[in-house]
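Q: Got a minute? One more chain.
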Amino acid sequence: MERYDVAVIGGGWGGYTAAVQSARHGLRVALVERDKLGGTCLHRGCIPTKVMLQTADVLALARHAADLGVDIPSATLDYDRVRGRMDEVIGQLYRGLQSVVRAAKLTSITGTAHIAAPGRVMVDSQEELEAGAIVIATGSRPRPLPGLPFNGETVVSSDDLLQRQRVPSSVVIAGAGAVGVEFASCMADFGAAVTLVELAPRIVPLEDRDIAAGLARALSARGIRIITGSSVVAGEVAPVDGGMRVPVRGRDQEQVLDAELLLVAVGRAPVTDGLDLEALGVKTERGYVVVDDAMRTSVPGIYAVGDVNGGLQLAHVAAAEGALAADVIAGKPSPPLAYARLPRATYCRPQVASAGLTEDEAAAAGFAVKAGRSHFRANGKALIAGEPDGLVKVVADGATGDVLGVHILGAHSTELIAEVALGQLLNMAVWELAAAVYPHPTLSEAIGEAAAAAERRS
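A: Always. Here it is, folded:
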């Protein structure tokens, strides 16, 4: 039996970060992954989808290049080349990740792990590891609609859609969160007829209402049909010639949609099969592993990071949790994560990015809210780039002046949010955000203008 200080189960963003950080602390580490290092994000999530979305952005720009004085006679999509580029990007990042793991001098093991007991991990029922600490980082998988399993052909997950060899002629997307609107945006640019169906009263329901309303207008203007306050009637979905018949039911309406395929994007489920958590006494809720603010589970010596613990299901959050768990295991001082301040990014067109509380969340929490807005239609760089759709909204505490949240809809917002994330870490006040001098002309000026509007001095 090999003895390790730390055994990490799962080689995705959270798992490999926990493993590498632990090794950097001088601990002996085993990293067990049953598929490929990089997990969902690298192979089936963040990276391949953003390759597709980047192509969609370029295609849209080419089609509207005449507005900028550039004539491009024919802007067409070569989907085989898109898929080839996806493989190239994934391959380069995968090789880089393998180099990072090798440089950390940890033990990488391919196989399926089972926790036999606290401090004991079995790999493929053959190799036994002894570990002072175990980190569960097994991630999540797409969640199907109840009673309607994925078939990979006509009822598909995001994983399935990435594997398709061609763009569907039409698609109904159940769920208009980040995954749903990203695929809606991409498939529409690629030429598919797209319908978004969302149970909540608005799309991207976790985002600020002004951002959601602006995104809905922008997507609708591109021909994407949006149906809110409604859900797919899973038990009545049926095949028809050329695709699927998808009944949709809301409070006051019922309709039937026909499409080549149904993409289900209603969330993700934790991957815990084979770990035998119940027998170990590890507490779970709705299948997710319950952790404290140091990533510790209810069983001493067992930690859980990333999607499997039911927090923010974002790769950068998983990495931050993995690093935190490694620090705690090594006895290094490390503050807990302030989840409300962590940035979120959605790569549809226009993009959505945010950090902190929405205006409604801030009001519900009892803050005396003041908010300021700045629209990209009044921003010089947005007009120059031909990308005027969007706005910046700053939410602040009217009593203290602290910034409670910043929400951005518009081109490159997923890059702009980094400034806000740093400011949130440093507890910035709204007057500081407004007082910063922004280069002109840039999209970043809209952040300062929104902050100034919140201060009533725009």
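A: The longest strand covers residues 127-136.
Q: Perfect, thanks.
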